């Protein structure tokens, strides 16, 4: 459509009126897009019975008492500020 409508900024065009050049291809494109979306949703909904048979469970495992405990933490040189948290010191 970009090449068939010289002078019309198709990517910025929001409102089309009947009789305008490109109106018919725009309507066909819009109907096709909505048809594809509804077809995909209908196809996805056919799996509802299968998805009901699936149970997901997650278990959290805490590996430290707080966020600043890390196995990768290296001490920061004492020159300048003495901040030692990996988040602010930038040592990971």
UniProtKB/TrEMBL annotation:
Q: Where is this region: Disordered?
A: 67-92
Recorded topology in the membrane: Multi-pass membrane protein
Query: What region holds the CWH43-like N-terminal domain?
Result: 22-54
User: Where is this protein found?
Assistant: Endomembrane system
The record's Gene Ontology cellular component field reads:
lysosome
Checking Pfam families in the record gives: Frag1 (PF10277)
Principal localization reads membrane
Q: Which residues cross the membrane?
A: 27-48
- InterPro entries in alphabetical order: CWH43_N, DRAM/TMEM150_Autophagy_Mod
Which domain of life does the UniProt lineage start with? Eukaryota
The answer, when asked if Membrane is one of the entry's keywords, is yes
Name the UniProt key words of this record, in alphabetical order: Membrane, Transmembrane, Transmembrane helix
* GO BP annotations listed: photoreceptor cell maintenance; regulation of autophagy
Name residues in a coiled coil. none
Q: Which family does it belong to?
A: Belongs to the DRAM/TMEM150 family.
- Name this protein carries in UniProt: CWH43-like N-terminal domain-containing protein
